[in-house]
Amino acid sequence: MKKHFHIQKNIVAFNLAMILATGSVTPAFAAEKSTNPSASPAYIYDEAFYATLDYYGGVTNSSVVKSYALHGNSSIVDYGTYTEVNNLTDDRAARMENGAVVFDFDENSPDHFYFEGVTDEPLKKFPWNIEISYKLNGVYCPAEKLAGEKGVVEILLDVVPNPSASEYMRNNLVLSAVSLFDGDEILSLEAPGAQIQLLGNKRTVLFLVLPGEERHFSIRVGTEDFSYGGMIFTAFPATLAQLEDIKDLREDKEKIEDSYDAINASLDVILDTLDGMSDSLNTVANGLDDLNDARATIYAGKDEIYDSTDEALDDLDIMADALARFSHNMESTTEALTEVTDSFSDLTKNAVKLQPELKELRDTIRSIQSTNNSLKELANGMDLVRDSAEGLTNKSSENLQELGDVTAGLESSLEEITDALANLNPIAPMEPINVGGMTSSTEIKVAVQQAKAAYQQYQDYLTANGLTSEQLPFEAYLQAGGKSPEEASAIAQLLAKSQQDNFDSLLQLMDNANAMLPTINSKIDEINALIASIAGPTAQLTDDMRELCDTLGEEGVNADLQQLIGLINAVLNSLEGHKGEMQSILSDINELGDFIISVSNNADDMLDILDSLNDTLNSYESDAEDALDDARIISRATADAVRSAHKAISAVQKLLKASDDKLNSGTQATLSGLADTLRKSTAGLAQTDTIRAAKETITNLIDDEWNKFTGESNNLLLMDATAKPTSLTSEQNPFPSSIQFIMRTQEIKASDNDTETSQQMQKQKVGVWGKIREMFRDFWVFLTGVY
User: Is the pLDDT of residue 37 over 70?
Assistant: First the structure.
């Protein structure tokens, strides 16, 4: 059982040794092709550099093992400087051609091919220089004297970046250093900065060095009989998928850096601006002093402002009343339009009622004509025909009577429409608000400036001549300058009103009201145009309908039809005595019936036209009412706004009267205090240099932190997991699938000559795996001890 377990341990250890020693020998099957035009056709291959180091990190022997997946290639070409080339697969020999190693293959070629090139050239590209030193009980000691020593042995590892390494190697290779110690043979173990794991009874110490990083490690081992299996170094590109985010991070940092530079530049501009604000703040403080003086002037003239406000409030009352009357007129117009539309609709309804009567009349005439035709054929049935004709004539008389009643109602509706149209007057447009004939605030402000200029000239004149305003009033001065008394009074009043606090608000209110007048007057014009457009056709229609009623009335068609029926009755009464003349009379009756049918058809067409006109008027009624409603709403809103302004101004006036003394004193204190505060705040602007220094500190901190990971401490943020690895031996070679460095230092232990002799006697020619195992037997023996 123990033997079986021992065999299993050796198998596991052997596999682990093969992973470390030949991890890159097994070829990859998806490598990138080289873009170097001078290289041979791309091969899918891997490279691994193996080296044995002395106690202190110096190389004792080294070589590169390359593994190829041939995929039917007849030859491989490899560039590199080698002192010896060994075929690890079969017996075929390499040939040298133009500085390259060439292996040729035939139909018996293997699928995978391995060869070793003895060289130390890859170490020149290795991104670190490695040095190892030792101490015994705190004193430096040669490694050769440490085997079997008792005490605390300190193993010092110095890893320093190699500036001669290629950019790819410096930015992408990660270095690991591993040492194993038998837990049963040591007393203590310390390795600051390392990861220590227990594998069986072996304690594994792992150090990791990031790209471009300089590190100094130490391992302190307490022992009574020191031995050391050496340190194993592996270096390989970091190609984990998660590391691809580092490239994105670097790109994002560059974008952020550009944005920060822009912010930094803007902050410099702001600080420069703050540096120049001191004089500006003093200027503002002086301006506040001037405002304080202006406050005193305004306070002195507050009574005059109150008087002007009263006048403005009276004007607003007048305007609000006018707008209220306008709104009422809009309502009257809407009602009139509704009455006209309703009356015309009634007229149309009454007229349309004639259509069934006319149809029945046509049917009656056609029935009479049919009866007459029967009379022609039934001369012997005269009595029966006469009775039927009498019934029809009686029915026709009744229909004509109903037609007369409908016509009378239609004539009454036409009279109502005519009266409504006669009373429908256009709406007068509203006049703009003006001050002395001026309707815009711009004109008034220009006039105010002119009045102020005249008043300043007046003050200069009083001063120059030693006069007072009582001796020479301002209006008298203006009259002396050629102004009429009315013009002088208007200028003085305008100047007085301009001193009011709410003067600009009143001007803005006037502009708003006048700006609304074109819209209101436009709506009034639309309403008047609509009324005018309706009135003409409606009047013409009422005239036509009146003529139609006259035509259909007692003296028109109705009378003719009544007379016709009387004639028919007379004819029927005399038929008996005029049998010989029956055919002639019946023919005349048929012709008369055709004429009546034609007249009734024309009346039907007129009624259809009347109904269509009524639909047209009804379709425009909604738009007209909407326009009137809009005008009414606008006028009401304007009136409400004016009343609200009146209320607001009154409230402001009341508030000012109640608080003018406190407002004056408070404003005075505020302006004085603010001016003093601004003058004192200029002292704070002297701190811009401190802010600028802090900004520079932040900038330097950001740059230092970035530089720390981009070359100063390590190259972590320069890693690119997607970068293609370069060949360890020559840039002329295609891109390999993977590269790696595997190195191990010399063991420190008592010599075992018997073991060494036995191992030398076992050397013989074996296959590729045997050769690789032979090359790195020390690795395998070392790792076997783990179990």
Answer: no
